[in-house]
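Tutorial sheet, problem 5. The two components below are modelled jointly, 230 residues in total.
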Amino acid sequence: GAGVSQSPSNKVTEKGKDVELRCDPISGHTALYWYRQRLGQGLEFLIYFQGNSAPDKSGLPSDRFSAERTGESVSTLTIQRTQQEDSAVYLCASSPGLAVTGELFFGEGSRLTVL
Amino acid sequence: AQSVAQPEDQVNVAEGNPLTVKCTYSVSGNPYLFWYVQYPNRGLQFLLKYITGDNLVKGSYGFEAEFNKSQTSFHLKKPSALVSDSALYFCAVRLTNQAGTALIFGKGTTLSVSS
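Model answer (C-alpha cells):
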C-alpha cells in the first residue's frame, strides 16, 4: 500500500485477555518500529526490526509484550494478559533502511482500551 | 543516555503571530534531530530534520527549526501561525553513530492557534 497500515484501528478488551495488533509497513521498507503513546505522554519506544537482524527489544515494558516480523513484511505486536495500564495508542512506523538520517513513516495507530 | 525534552506541554498563539515550540536534547555525541506533527486521530507526519550544515532548516508547511549546539536546542518556529497548525508536535533525536536505532521522542507539545 501507499502508507503504513495498522489494524485494528480500535480494540476494546477485558483485563487478562490477549490482544494482537498488526502492522503492514510500506513496501520495500526494511526497518519497522513499534511505539506506544499513552494519554498525556510522549512516544515510548517498544521494539525495532531491521531486515533479518535480531530485533532491538530494549523498550518492551514486560515479558507480556512480544512482537514478530517475518522477513521484511507484516509485524504483529502481542500483549498477553492485558492490564489497564496497557491502554494506549500503539503506533507502527517503517523506514527504508539503516540510514541514521532517515525519517520514519507512521501508521495511524491502533487504540487499545483495556477495561 | 540520550534524551529529548520539550519543556512546554502547551503553546497558545493567535493566528498570524509567530510561534515557537521548544526542544532541548541531551546526548553524548552529535545528534540528528527531527520534528514530527500529529493531527487529531492521525499518525505522526515528518516535518523537518537537521543532519549537518546550515543550522537553520526548513520543512513542510512553512515551518523551520534552528539547531543551536551550544544551547543543545532545536526549537521549531513559524513566522505566521495558522489555525490549521493546531496539533501535537514531537521533537526526536538519534545519535549520528547509531545507525539502525530507533528515534527517541520527547513528550510532545500541543500547539493551539486561535483565530
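Marking note: Chain B has one domain: 3-114. Full credit if you identified this.
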